[in-house]
UniProtKB/TrEMBL annotation:
Residues 54-219 form the ATP phosphoribosyltransferase catalytic domain. The chain holds residues 1 to 225 of 299 of the full protein. It comes from Buchnera aphidicola. It catalyses: 1-(5-phospho-beta-D-ribosyl)-ATP + diphosphate = 5-phospho-alpha-D-ribose 1-diphosphate + ATP. GO terms for biological process: L-histidine biosynthetic process. This is ATP phosphoribosyltransferase.
Amino acid sequence: MFDNNRVRIAMQKTGRLSSDSIKLLTCCGIKINLKQQKLIAFAENMPIDVMLVRDDDIPGLVMDGVVDLGIVGENVLEEELLKRISQKSEYSYITLRRLDFGICRLSLAIPVSTIYSDITCLKNIRIATSYPHLLKKYLDEKKIRFKSCMLNGSVEVAPRAGLADAICDLVSTGATLEANGLREVQVVYRSHACLICRTGDINHIKKEVINKLMTRIKGVIKARE
Ligand code: PRP
Ligand code: ZN
Ligand code: MG
């Protein structure tokens, strides 16, 4: 049985945000007992439980009220939001704070050998992405029709594998694009990690813990500015 007075926070298990997320909690003085292969980790000195999950699952866990807090990239959050809006399902959450890590951009990239002058070069081509809603919103606004190819991973190999003409994927250092002979041509969305909270009733014991955590996060971020 889970203790309803403990704050549940979801964060990425492995990936770009995981070590910075853990570091943030550690800098806030929270002692987390991390064990390999475990979905849940308990803080020893505060009533906080950490759920280690796939980043893509975090917005949904918060929006469905399964966890109280989540540390997630705005890219993943915005994609889930657009998806839920298109499906007419529930999508409420509160952004408590933008965090100082996880800075990246969702960009369109094409093989270096492809000629490119402007966005109209993308007309009617096939684009591989894990972010179909963000991509569609962007290209709809630009009135560019395209065909999409949904891939949850290995998006960067799609052009070489003959699955797509271009990709729309996250770029942080640019190393992945370079290693795959791709060139960034348009920025679709700029992103940061952020701390989100579920809506609905949260008891006062948990609210106090969340407030305490927020005060500490603010202090930690201020100190590293
Ligand atoms: C993203 C993206 C690339 C990589 C780009 O994956 O899909 O693989 O980061 O970073 P770079 O420009 O520094 O090379 P990410 O780890 O964010 O998420 P995923 O594993 O959920 O796809
Ligand atoms: Zn992911
Ligand atoms: Mg990746």
